[in-house]
Design brief:
The complex is a heterodimer of chains A (545) and B (387). With 545 residues, chain A is mainly α. Chain A folds into three domains: 2-123, no CATH class; 140-247, no CATH class; 251-544, ABC transporter involved in vitamin B12 uptake, BtuC (Orthogonal Bundle), CATH 1.10.3470. Chain A is built from 22 helices and seven strands. In chain A, the strands form two sheets. In chain A, strands 4-3-2-1-5 form a five-stranded antiparallel beta sheet. In chain A, strands 6-7 form a two-stranded antiparallel sheet. Chain A starts with a helix and ends with a helix. Chain B is globular, with a radius of gyration of 23 Å. Chain B has a two-stranded antiparallel sheet. Chain B has helices at residues 2-7, 9-14, 19-41, 52-78, 85-104, 117-121, 137-161, 166-185, 211-237, 239-249, 251-256, 261-287, 297-310, 315-335, 337-354, 358-386; strands at residues 197-198, 202-203, 206-207, 289-290. The relative contact order of chain B is 0.16. Chain B contains 16 helices and four strands. In chain B, helix 4 (52-78) crosses helix 14, helix 5 (85-104) runs antiparallel to helix 7 (137-161) and helix 9 (211-237) packs across helix 10 (239-249). Chain B folds into two domains: 53-356, no CATH class; 359-387. Classes of the chains: A mainly alpha (545), B mainly alpha (387).
């Protein structure tokens, strides 16, 4: 009896859907199809047997409704339940809570036994996968289509080849079509026909997706055992091609990492290039200026927790002011008394660095602080499947160059910059021209420290913010300045970038630690050859160095 | 009596103008003898009994003092500010540690007679070539001198020949010790990686936990410090020492006068590195561990502050500074751990600003001021009389 009613309902629904599908085919875009009909179709799943469910799945897939895909997907995942009393369809979550499929509202059950799972078997899963892929591949949103295409790479057989070919033909976006073509190629590898297999291999040439490589390796094993020598040769050639491309892309990626590391070094060293390079002051507390900048970012973020992105922008001037102010205080309080005694300056500022570290430890905590990253910093920029560039690194590179450019502008184009250069070149002369040298010294040191603070903002996005943050960068920063040449911003840029890139290019062969050691040894040897760095100052200023 | 003076002839001339040094060495010699004896002979409850803990701690200070003498020799007398002297200290320590590791033999956790535990743990099957010979005490002791010496020679030869001076030298010495720090952290280096070398059992067949061994080590540290002091004193009072001071005060002038500045610097740099190596070798059996942390740049900078606090350019000042600062460190890290870094940092700033000659110089400074005041007062009196 029950069975009879079920069949009757199914028949009814099929008729109904058939007419709906026809309505859609005739080009009517008017939303005749309502949630109700999807709901009724969905509810038929409750009573249907597996072969009926297969038919129902296809029918449901044809319904143009935002909930179609979730319905099929939950069914496929085995998470589709229904309420025994009302036949309401539910999504079961991993934490045993339930949600109404159509209203998305949370459903509280009196007893877990009130809800029953709608079963799936393997052949139904196959149908579901195909339908889901087809739905996704024809989604209106190109991002969804792309995601669907990428998913197909993982299981090429989900969509049958005729549908796939259609989709390729219809596809407007070239990059999606390319991915689909690769999927087709992967399907063709499984074809019984030798020509088709060859076609597939052609299609896969230079496809960089890791799935393609996996498929090809399997294909080679299969063909070898089947004795298709020419196919094996062809497949091997394709693999070699792909691997060559992957290696090249790997180099490009390393180069990018190197540039990013160089940018970090540049940011860390650029303030030092002023205090050490221009003023000749060894500021061992430079790293702590960076740390202060990072902690400023943390504090600003705590003050405006709802605007992470904005807080980062606010943190830049704030960090500049905080570190700059501390820098001015250090210059007035300590360094002023030690001009002309570089080794003593080194020791005194090292003492200050210890004090600052401990201060931060006492105020905040010895533990690392969490600094959130805004959404626009996350994510990657895909150039090809083997080469994805992360946004945060890109921003750091741009940011460091901006800071460098701004600094160069300040030095070359402002009155303060002019006075600063005058004081560095000839202090007594500048003084007799009416420049307040003490004031210029303090501001120069403040500028260098402030820029270190800005570097701290950037570093807070890359590494842990803790009391030892500065320590990690102080030696590297000195290396950059010494390598690039003292008193020369371009030297700092070239120094930072070459050290960053060299580090990342050596890393794949030697590992991170050895790479660092090699770089240090290289610099130690380099200093022997050119004690004044890559771009040494020439002329009178060099004698004082 | 006369006989003795004749016997002490060279020593007497060495210390003739070094009154403070004479006192210091006498105290050190007395300490080296009395403290071990009091530890071994007096009963535990006695007022004069020195506990093993205190003796070991003092022994550690003596090693630091020797290290400070080594630093002072190059910084105070030759103007080379090495921020990497901790590297030589640690290398000497590792050489000793390797000997002590080999002494463990099959008493390790894995009971391997040849390989130290960490190598067995890394699935190594045979001893790396650079561990060969370290089961012999004489060889290990030779290496305590040779390894730091050779490193200092190569590094110094390169650096001094190309006239890397001043802060540049400081920075690259710091890079050197930093590079070594990173290298020794690596497990594949074969020096125990992160954990370093530890769990030592005995030295020359004597149990390291025994009070007698500890006392002997303390005595050895005291004697090493005294000898190190005398060697340094000999160097700085010799003609060579005069040239060193000349180089410190004006390197180019010394060069123009025809002295091969690089050779002098290199010599004293190597001697200093070897002294640091000895200090490290004596330090390790007393503290019972050597790990890459000893290479940390901050350690090397701390050594500088010992010398600066004590008084740069006076050997006894270096000894006093090392003991003072380290005693303060032990006290403060125990009592007010938070305060210690503030204090150490403050010490750096204050000594450079107000005590350029350290604690030792303070005395002279005060005396000068006193004399000046007296003079001024006298002048005023004279002026008053004239008026």
């Amino acid at each position: 009896m029950r069975n009879f009613i079920g069949q009757a309902m199914l028949l009814l629904s099929l008729m109904c859907c058939g007419s709906l599908a026809m309505a859609e085919d005739s080009g009517a875009s008017s939303p005749i199809v309502t949630v109700a009909s999807l709901e009724s179709l969905g509810q038929q799943l409750i009573t249907a047997n597996y072969s009926e469910k297969k038919a129902l799945a296809s029918t449901i897939a044809a319904v143009d409704d935002p909930k179609t895909l979730p319905l099929l997907q939950t069914l496929l995942d085995g998470q589709l339940y229904y309420l025994k009393e009302t036949n309401e369809l539910l999504i079961s979550h991993d934490d045993d809570s339930f949600e109404d499929l159509f209203t998305s509202s949370l459903v509280v059950l009196d007893s877990p036994r009130d809800a029953k799972k709608i079963g799936v078997n393997n052949s139904l899963r196959g149908v579901l996968r195909t339908e889901i892929s087809r739905l996704q591949i024809s989604a209106r949103d190109p991002q969804l289509r792309m995601a669907a295409a990428r998913n197909l790479l993982k299981s090429a057989s989900d969509l049958d080849s005729t549908l796939l070919k259609e989709a390729i033909k219809k596809e407007e976006k070239r990059d999606i079509a390319e991915v689909l073509a690769i999927v087709l190629g992967m399907q063709q590898l499984d074809s019984p026909d030798a020509d088709t297999r060859m076609q597939g291999l052609e299609a896969l040439d230079k496809a960089l997706y890791p799935e393609v490589r996996a498929a090809l390796t399997q294909f080679i094993v299969r063909s070898e055992s089947a004795g298709h020598a020419n196919e094996v040769a062809k497949a091997n050639a394709v693999v070699t091609d792909i691997e060559k491309l992957v290696t090249i892309n790997g180099y490009i990626e390393n180069l990018y990492f190197g540039l990013a590391l160089g940018a970090v070094l540049l940011l860390a060293a650029i303030g030092l290039a002023i205090t050490f390079g221009v003023m000749g002051v060894i500021n061992m507390a430079h790293g702590e200026m960076i740390m202060l900048g990072a902690y400023t970012t943390y504090v600003v973020q705590q003050l405006m927790p709802d605007h992470i992105g904005l807080s980062l922008v606010v943190a830049i001037p704030a960090a500049f002011l905080v570190s700059g102010a501390v820098g001015v205080a250090i210059e007035r309080g300590v360094i002023r008394h030690l001009y002309g005694r570089p080794l003593e300056t080194l020791l005194a500022t090292f003492g200050l660095s210890l004090v600052l570290q401990q201060a931060v430890r006492s105020i905040f905590s010895p533990l690392n602080r969490e600094v959130a990253t805004p959404d626009w910093m996350a994510g990657t920029f895909m150039i090809n499947p083997a080469l994805e560039l992360t946004f945060n690194r890109l921003y750091i590179i741009i940011f460091s160059l901006l800071v460098l450019g701004l600094l160069a502008l300040v030095l070359k184009r402002t009155l303060f910059g002019l006075q600063m250069r005058a004081v560095t070149m000839n202090r007594p002369m500048a003084s007799s021209m009416g420049i307040r040298t003490g004031w210029v010294d303090a501001l120069t040191f403040g500028l260098g420290s402030g820029i270190a603070g800005i570097a701290g903002v950037a570093l807070s996005q890359l590494t842990n913010v803790g009391p030892n943050l500065g320590q990690a960068y102080i030696i590297d920063s000195f290396m950059v300045v010494v390598f690039g040449g003292v008193g020369n911003l371009w030297g700092t840029l070239v120094g930072a970038m070459s050290l960053g890139i060299a580090n990342k290019l050596v890393e794949p062969f030697a590992g991170a630690v050895l790479a660092k050691i090699f770089i240090l040894i290289f610099i130690i040897l380099f200093i022997q050859k050119r004690p004044r760095g890559l771009f040494a100052l020439k002329g009178r200023a060099a004698d004082n160095g | 009596m006369t006989n003795q003076t004749v016997k002490l002839g060279p020593l007497a001339t060495l210390l003739m103008n070094d009154k403070a040094g004479r006192y210091l060495l006498s105290v050190l010699l007395a300490m080296s003898i009395v403290i071990p004896l009091s530890n071994l002979l007096l009963p535990e409850g006695s007022f004069f009994h020195v506990s093993t803990y205190a003796m070991t701690l003092l022994g550690k200070y003596l090693c630091y003092a020797l290290l400070a003498v080594a630093v002072d020799l190059i910084w105070g007398y030759c103007g080379i500010l090495s921020l990497g002297h901790g590297a030589f200290f640690a290398l000497g320590g590792y050489a000793m540690g390797m000997y002590l590791m080999r002494q463990i033999g099959d008493r390790g956790v894995y009971s391997n007679p040849e390989l130290p535990d960490f190598m067995v743990f890394l699935n190594w099957t045979e001893l790396p070539w650079y561990w060969q010979g370290f089961d012999q005490f004489w060889f290990a002791m030779l290496m305590v001198l040779v390894v730091p010496g050779v490193l200092a020679f190569v590094f110094g030869a390169l650096a001094f020949r190309s006239r890397v001076t001043g802060v540049y030298l400081s920075i690259i010495t710091q890079a050197l010790t930093y590079a070594l720090l990173l290298a020794f952290f690596r497990n594949d280096m074969g020096f125990g990686g992160n954990n370093g070398l530890t769990d030592f059992k005995d030295i020359l067949g004597y149990d390291l936990q025994q009070d007698t061994t500890r006392a002997a080590l303390f005595f050895a540290s005291g004697i090493a410090l005294i000898l190190g002091y005398l060697i340094s004193r000999f160097i700085v009072t010799s003609k060579l020492g005069r040239v060193l001071v000349a180089i410190r005060d004006s390197e180019s002038r010394a060069r123009f006068l025809g002295y091969r500045v690089e050779h002098y610097k290199l010599f004293v740099f190597v001697v200093s590195a070897m002294l640091a190596g000895i200090a490290g070798a004596l330090y390790v059996p007393q503290v019972g561990i050597i790990n890459p942390g000893e290479f940390a740049p901050i350690n090397s900078i701390e050594m500088i502050i010992w010398v600066a606090v004590g008084g740069r350019g006076t050997l006894f000042g270096a000894v006093i500074g090392a003991i003072l600062v380290n005693y303060a460190k032990t006290y403060f890290t125990g009592a007010f751990a938070e305060l210690w870094l503030f204090l150490l940092g403050g010490l750096f700033v204050l000594t450079t600003l107000y005590l350029p000659k350290g604690v030792v110089g303070l005395w002279a400074q005060l005396k000068d001021k006193h004399a000046q005041n007296k003079q001024q007062a006298a002048m005023k009196e004279v002026e008053g009389d004239q008026a």
